[in-house]
Design a protein that fits this description.
globular; two-stranded antiparallel ribbon; about 80 residues; mainly alpha
Amino acid sequence: MVKGLVYNTKLEQRIDRYMATHGEAMDPRTVIHNMWVRGLWPKTEQTPKRLSFYFRISKRYVKLGPHRPYTYVWKKSYNPTRHGV
């Protein structure tokens, strides 16, 4: 497996594809749960803190909310009037 920013590149591509098609703001726990239910998330990688770190360093996501749990939305799906600040 090729190492990506935080996870392997295959999982990072799955995360990006899922978030791009979903278009809604979600917290990392919800993303992990939804992807795990669909069979897109390996059971050994269930770490919301690590996913939150990936969202921050990848620069493809916008962080929403004043405090934890932060929600993240795909940057191209972000709409200030719909998602707030």
